[in-house]
Amino acid sequence: MGILGRDKTLPAANGPLPCLSDRCRTASYRAAACRAALRDIVILTANTAAAVRAVMFQAAAVFSVTVWAASLPAHADDTHTSGTPAPVFNLPLGLPTLLETRTTETLAPGLRHHRIVRRPHTNGASGKDPDYTHENCTHAWAAASPVLHTATDERTALACVPGHFPATDIRRFLTPGDPGRSYGIVYAGTFETRDVALAAIARAPLAGCGFSAIHTALTPHHAMGPWVVNVLEVDPRHFRGRLVSALAGKTVAGPAPVTAIAADRRALAAVNGGFFVTSEEDGVIGEPAGLSIVDSRVLSEATANRPALGIRNTPRLQAAIAVASAEPVLHWGDGRESPIDGINRHPGIIRNCGNRGDREGRMPAHDKTCRDDDEIIVLTHDAGFDVPNGQDHRLLIGADGRLAPAAPPAPGELLVIATGRHAAEVRALAAANDRAVINTDALLGDIFPDLWTAPANRGAGSLYAVGGGPLLLKNGMRVHHEGIEGWHMDADMPAERAMLVHRWFNIRTPRTAAGITRDGRLLLVTVDGRQPGHSVGATIPEIRGMMKALGAVDAINLDGGGSTAMVIGDTLVTRPSDSDGERPVGEALLLLPR
Question: Which positions fall inside the Phosphodiester glycosidase domain (predicted)?
Fold first, then answer.
């Protein structure tokens, strides 16, 4: 059984929860009902649990099904017979009474594409919803305050809002990594466009208060969507192809669109992979910002505390999600060891932080670049860039482990660059030894023991991996490790950093995620976003709930935003959110024919 299901028509929830927000008025819903839409959707769906029952059926090769009412995601304590797919429920996005349509196409044996759309009901051939239309919600922009941690912060923000502004209120958001805490954002005013909102923010008394403009459909309090979700479902019991990760080109340097990466390798389907560097001040453009393993070659080191998706075709596809805590180590001939800080990046520049010896500490910080003057960096033949000579020590490790003077590495060779206090250390170790090696086999086994070292898998095929974060699900349970994965938030951090974390975590944006079901199926999921009227996107809590509803027991968030892309054949089935179209990315996950 696949991930599609059909629901019966259900009783209405405890009162209608309509509207884009309380800024949208329709003829049939009062403002009080609109304000009710701002309640937590999780609470709403819990209240309708008694009315919700899914009716499952086997998907045909190509068909479409309309779902007239939503049901609940699976709960953490659900148990199922081994080898039996978990029951799948409609997506927990917005009102339970939204219209949900699902279309499925079989791309190859064991590989199916599902397209899921959630939107308000329409009224016959006119395509108009009698209770809600996009045209009625013309004042969808608002002024949003900075993150407010205390009651004093909230009073200060409210004092900035002109008294004549309508619909001023404080919305609550759960703190990333600590759902027991929350913070506030003041939303004020109703504006037709972003430019009108920005003009109001630039005038007194809002000027200087740190407010910004936001489309309210991108906030989780908006309950009407729409949402466009694409799912690639891979069943290893029947899929005869391979799933691999691939760099944009033949080297770490240089991104490319997913459509180009897929076309170059003649993929059946593809999605974007992990985070990567997008500007030269943050490193090498295209360089993965986290773990990257291609054909059992570690091409980028892991970010501390962050999860990664591991893949192996043995020849049957296997996948696992693990936190890559192991670090690569340079083993010298005399038995001494030197921990390696980075692979295929510039010394001293660590995108997303989370590296041993960073000036700012060991913890990751998403979309931040940390510095470290004392590092040991290794470049492989896959790097595709040069590091200018500086106050460092360099040496070449040959494919046979013998040490040689520094030179561009050939396949199988490693260029070691030691900076700061490590330069003298490596110089002395090189003088005392004639050999050194990185034990890649042990490193892969430490990160993905089930995939790499299990007796049945020894020597059975190459390992591939992409990094991501946050971890969404583990063993069927929702996990909240964001505080140590790079999305920490507290009252002492700069306002700009707090707002970055808020927008990244609790504001809707395009998302890409990967999940593994209880019976071993792999789900690659994208959500279009930042396009009200087409698809608003998802917050991290929403994508977590979606993956659980789709049947995943383990799940990881991958790179999103403008990077989100899914390709089937030569067709981009997602709609890019960047104004200039599909974004070049550092790596992709490819489903290849055998």
Answer: 452-591
